[in-house]
Design a protein that fits this description.
The complex is a heterodimer of chains A (about 110) and B (about 110). Chain A is an all-beta fold and about 110 residues long. Chain A is about 0% helix and about 60% strand. In chain A, strand 7 and strand 8 form a beta hairpin. Chain B is globular, with a radius of gyration of 13 Å. The chains are: A mainly beta (about 110), B mainly beta (about 110).
Chain lengths: ~110, ~110
């Protein structure tokens, strides 16, 4: 059973547009939500992360929006660039556990 | 500073053969994870270690899979015998404690024919 559900599976955005990737979870014990970025042939790398005590976190063009009541969080990439083309994974972990649960990934393509 | 180092980067083997994947975590990290990535299932945690001790191996798909961490700087994931459905990218990752940022290696691309 997928602990974290991610959508869409793939996304195509024009350069300069906004890319939005969504994730949902059920386990209310989750309290840390990172996003990882993976380029072809490479391992995933931490992009940005949020804890549920805030509803939004922004780092440059990347923003996480978090809705605790809906148990949903999303990644927004503003002014998307071709260099942002990669696979993005959301993840979640609980203080009571010792592992991260990853979403199935979103393949983002930004076309010039 | 060296990241997580995995070897081999690519391996093609015949069904039934033994496959051994190797990992050197980042120096000072005390948690190590083995993940498998496929198109169908995404990133799956196979097993993780804390201080060289296996903590949770519930993700190991079958008895054909085994993992060891004999010391803080080395881990192996072994598949014996290998099957075509084991074809995937296997990632090793490490962190300083399990709840901190985990750092992935570049993966071992396994093809079983």
């Amino acid at each position: 059973q997928q602990q974290v559900k991610q959508s869409p599976q793939s996304l195509i955005v024009q350069k300069g547009g906004i890319s939005i990737i969504n994730c949902a979870y059920e386990n209310t014990a989750f309290d840390y939500f990172p996003w990882y970025q993976q380029f072809p042939g490479k391992g995933p790398a931490l992009l940005i992360a949020i804890r549920p005590d805030v509803s939004e976190k922004k780092e440059g063009r990347f923003t996480i929006s978090f809705n605790k009541s809906a148990k949903q969080f999303s990644l927004h990439i503003m002014d998307s660039q071709p260099g942002d083309s990669a696979t993005y994974f959301c993840a979640a972990s609980a203080n009571t556990g010792n592992q991260f649960y990853f979403g199935t990934g979103t393949s983002l393509t930004v076309i010039p | 500073d060296a990241g997580v180092i995995q070897s081999p980067r690519h391996e093609v083997t015949e069904m039934g053969q033994e496959v051994t994947l190797r990992c050197k975590p980042i120096s000072g990290h005390n948690s190590l994870f083995w993940y498998r990535q496929t198109m169908m299932r995404g990133l799956e945690l196979l097993i993780y270690f804390n201080n060289n001790v296996p903590i949770d191996d519930s993700g190991m798909p079958e008895d054909r899979f085994s993992a060891k961490m004999p010391n803080a700087s080395f881990s192996t994931l072994k598949i014996q015998p290998s099957e075509p459905r084991d074809s995937a990218v296997y990632f090793c990752a490490s962190s300083f404690w399990t709840r901190n940022t985990i750092y992935f290696g570049e993966g071992s691309w396994l093809t079983v024919v």
